[in-house]
Specification:
Blueprint lengths: L5 H6 L20 H10 L2 H5 L2 H15 L3 E3 L6 H5 L4 E4 L3 E4 L5 H5 L8 H17 L5 E7 L1 H10 L7 H9 L1 H25 L3 E6 L7 H22 L5 E5 L9 H5 L3 E3 L6 H7 L5 E6 L3 H4 L1 H14 L5 E5 L9 H12 L1
Parallel strand pairs: 1-4, 4-5, 5-6, 6-7, 7-8, 8-9
Antiparallel strand pairs: 2-3
The chain binds coproporphyrinogen III.
Length: 343
């Protein structure tokens, strides 16, 4: 037990006074060395598809901060691209994709078996990381959950309320469901390849899960996530999985059990005392410091980090933010955070 990596111990259900720590978007624009390597690659997508440089930016925050886990550097929108969507990033604005508005949009899509042609460099990045990471650091692979990925493929961009995706879901359910099924099947193959290449844990990001309510949540957030996890675990029985149905609210209750996840990641809106009573009973919880504190820092950051750690220390906990660290965060604040949690 003792030589097992700290993150894997939490995911297996062990409570610890000092939880393992990593941060969503820990490789990113708040780090000058990330910005330099991205410039060397040319742009964000070229960086994602360059195994040596993608491995380098994945390792940068590990060298600088010694996090307990390292998340593969890639993006949830590489699957749409591998399925045939056009994808580009507009500086200062975010992703743009070709849109799927009806059955004809689906007709242009490739199949789950075609994705590796595009995604092979990602598996190469994982292989490099499996070799180069410190032996105590756990390597996390990831993908977007089908609903969140679909919202980008339908709208062609990020949307505040996911209205285009809801419109297709309600107006043309056959096309919408075909898209969800295609992303689900492709994601299984993609994550399977990440695990074969050396990812020790996988995380599913459902960033827009909170905009699905009631039965729609069960059908399009919960069910596809469950299908992915069930199939991955049938292929890799010991693989731990982290699920992040962001802003799921009361739908967080029972979610980990329902989908078969080993850990439930929670957003900043969830009260940690409530999480300890209602969510941690089912297993490991990950979260949920407000990323704004990584910008403002100081004693407010240290005391809030300790409050979250202490509220969740009665059960398995992975310390993280409630959403990704932002480009305006001060890297020095990561040291304040780690000192607060680890002391
Ligand atoms: O360090 C890590 O967390 C690993 C790499 C990672 C990225 N994106 C790199 C990235 C991960 C796990 C993601 C997940 C992701 N990507 C999500 C789910 C998590 C979330 O934030 O809700 C989503 C919705 C995306 C799609 C995406 N990628 C958007 C909307 C954007 C633009 C907004 C932004 O933050 O710039 C991206 C770009 C992106 N993905 C960057 C990084 C480091 C910034 C690109 C740059 O360097 O210019």
């Amino acid at each position: 037990m003792t030589d097992k990596k700290k993150l894997l111990r939490s995911l297996a259900g062990e409570a610890m006074d000092v939880p393992p720590v990593w941060l969503m978007r820990q490789a990113g624009r708040y780090l000058p060395e990330y910005r330099a390597t991205r410039a060397q690659a040319g742009d964000f997508l070229s960086l994602c598809y360059n195994p040596e440089l993608a491995a380098e930016v994945t390792l940068q925050p590990i060298r600088r901060f010694g996090f307990d886990a390292s998340i593969l550097f890639a993006d949830i929108l590489l699957i749409p691209q591998a399925l045939g969507a056009d994808l580009w990033f507009v500086t200062g604005e975010g992703p743009r994709l070709s849109t799927i508005t009806d059955a004809s949009g689906m007709a242009g899509m490739k199949t789950k078996d075609d994705i590796h042609e595009t995604l092979n460099p990602i598996y190469e990045t994982v292989k490099i990381l499996a070799e180069e990471l410190p032996k105590e650091t756990t390597l996390i692979g990831f993908a977007g959950a089908p609903w969140t990925v679909a919202t980008y493929m339908i709208a062609g961009r990020g949307t505040p309320d996911q209205a285009p995706a809801h419109a297709l879901r309600e107006g043309d359910p056959a096309t919408f469901e075909a898209l969800i099924d295609l992303i689900t099947d492709a994601t299984i193959e993609y994550l399977d390849m990440q695990v074969q290449a050396g990812a020790e844990v996988v995380k599913l990001f459902d960033s827009w899960a909170g905009s699905l309510k009631g039965e729609a949540f069960d059908k399009y957030a919960l069910a596809p996530t469950k299908k992915i996890i069930t199939e991955l675990k049938s292929r890799h029985p010991d693989l731990p999985v982290i699920a992040f149905p962001r802003e799921a609210g009361e739908k967080y209750i029972g979610f980990a059990d329902a989908v078969g996840a080993d850990c439930l990641a929670i957003d900043t809106s969830v009260d940690v005392t409530w999480a300890a009573q209602n969510l941690q009973v089912a297993g490991c919880v990950q979260g949920n410091l407000d990323p704004k504190l990584m910008v403002t820092g100081g004693e407010a950051l240290a005391s809030e980090a300790r409050r979250i750690r202490d509220a969740l220390k009665g059960g398995p906990h992975v310390f993280n933010l409630g959403h990704g660290i932002t480009p305006d965060a001060d890297p020095e604040n990561v040291h304040i955070l780690l000192d607060a949690i680890r002391s």
